[in-house]
Amino acid sequence: MDKLTIAGRSFASRLMVGTGKFASNELMAAALNASGSDIVTVALRRVDIDKPDDDLLAHIDRDRFLLLPNTSGARDAEEAVRLARLARAAGCEPWVKLEVTPDPYYLLPDPIETLKAAEILVKDGFTVLPYINADPVLAKHLQEVGTATVMPLGAPIGTNKGVRTRDSIAIIIEQAIVPVVVDAGLGAPSHAAEAMEMGADAVLVNTALAVTPDPARMAAAFAKGVEAGREAYLAGLGAIKDQAEASSPLTGFLRD
Amino acid sequence: MTFLNEFNQWTPERVQQLIDAAGPAQVEQALANEHLRLMDLAALLSPAAEGYLEQLAQRAHRLTQQRFGKTIQLYAPLYLSNLCCNSCLYCGFNADNQMERRTLSLDEVEAEARILHERGFRHIQLLTGEAPGAVENAYLAAAVQKIRPFFSSISIEVYPMDECGYAQMVAAGVDNLTVYQETYERSLYDELHPYGPKRDFDWRLNAAERGGSAGLRSIGIGALLGLSDWRKEGFYVGLHARYLAKHFWRSRINISFPRLRPADGGFKPLAPVSDAALVQLICVMRLLMPDSALVLSTRESASLRDHLLPLGITQISAGSSTSPGGYGQQAESSQQFAIDDDRDAEEICSMLRAQGYDPVFKDWDRAFLDNSNR
Question: Which residues carry out catalysis (chain A) (predicted)?
Answer without folding.
Answer: 97 (schiff-base intermediate with dxp)
